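Hi there,

I know you've been waiting on this one. I reran it after we fixed the sequence typo, so this is the corrected version. Both the input and the resulting structure follow.
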Amino acid sequence: MSDQLTEISAVLLKEYLFQGLDVVQIREVASQFRPVRYQADQTVIYEDMPPRKFFIVYKGTVKVTAVIKKPFQPSQKLKLYTYGSGNFFGEEALLNDQNNKDIVKTMEDSVILSMERETFESMLEKYPDVEKKLRATSDSRRLARSKHYSWFDGEALHLMGRKHWFFLIRSLILPIFLFIFSIPAILYTFTQLDPSAVSSLFQIGSILLMIGAVALAIWNWVDWGNDYYIVTTQRVIWVEKVVALYDNRNEAPLYTILKVDVATSQLGRILGYGNVTTRTYTGTINMDKVAKAAELAATIEGLIKRMLQRAKVDEISQIQGDVQKAIGREDPLSEDLEELVVKSPAEAKTTEEKRLTLSERMQDILMVRSERDGVITYRKHWYLLFQKSWLPLLLMVIFIFALYFIVPVTITGSTGVNGWVIFFGVLVFMGLIAWLLYSYIDWRNDTYQLTPEQIFQIYRKPLGTELKSSANIENILTINHERENLTGILLNFGTVTVSVGDTEIIFEGVFNPDQVHQDIADYQEALKRRKSEQKTEDDRKTMVKWLMTYDQEAAKRASEGISPEID
């Protein structure tokens, strides 16, 4: 029992949730948990399960699945997270006194630590800082569930939030003013008994002003709701999205963060917002106008501190685990564990593969930056699309006006002139549409891609040739970017040049070249980190083999009566 309590305490001691508790307090909390063994693909929490327990993964992994319910549609299941050792779950139902909304199942044979509800409530009452962190995480997970992000796999969410509400209100002031101004203008035009042409134009303008004000208000509200900051156990993320145009995710792994700065104005200190800047080896992540800026910065700093402490402990634990595995020794928690089966209601068959919906495909039409499954795709700026398509667009407008003034409203049938005009007009118009479509496809086919290990430059002519260049990220020597002219500076597009040996891969005309530069540098740093971790693991295994070889040789010498001393 003593070894078991020590092992549970060691797990809790590494977690940010219990940061600030001393060893005695950690051991007291650990004594309240009961380790339970679950088999692979076994349900720990089922949908609508009453809030009975708080859980922490000790060993193994669990999968969290959300049940999405829409009116007049069958329920769908969406995978949210994969939790490993040290991650907790079940807190949302306990804190809000409601049944569990998600389904939690094991992905392999696992050991889960569980705490009864009464004990959980006593712990929160005794340690209010733990309760504060749990509530912040619970609110963040509830918000994340509504966004359906698919890139949380293997990490736990700690904080998620958006820009302060003050900036939403500020962005709505202009459309509200325009809307209010348009009301008396519209009423005035309707009171005119004999409206003139000017009055009719004023009426149309007032109606368009009202529609524009409503559209601007909706746009600003959606735009405000699409920007989020996210803090997980592994990284800090800033998500910016402009509907149908731009989708950016700027992130930094915790191990790359050198410094966290908080800047607030007098108004920001009163209303509770500020700017948080995380500085890394390759650049910065600016999270501007965020709510609870000081709390966000403190969370990031706390997680970094805990990560460094945990890395040292994990390195020793991994070495011990490899040695124990080599000599056939079992884990202290592998014996005398209760095996618990949680019976859940019948679950419908779920499909976790996510396919692009029609709305997502429509949004992708003019997208200049998108990211799916770790692959970032860039296209050239919309200005370059306009350069390709302005002439067919202009000719289409001229052609429409020409038809309006040349072709009579009705076809008398006395001659065939009008019919031939319409026939050739349709042919010309279809030709202009084909020209415009060709220009769009030509723009869309020129893409640049960044994967975890490679970069790609792809030029493809519609119904023509395709040129594809690629390079390994680890071979990148330098990265440069520039905005060539005033247009590029005003519209924020330029060229990113990646030098690989004696060749170059050029991302031409991409939107926000600073961000593209940052993305490539981040992927390069992440690859170096993965290779370093793999080398460390290989070195550790080699060391264990040396230790085992030495132990076997020493045992052999001892059995033969040979002295282990070396001359």
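Quick highlight: DSSP finds 14 helices and 24 strands in the chain.

Best,
R. S.
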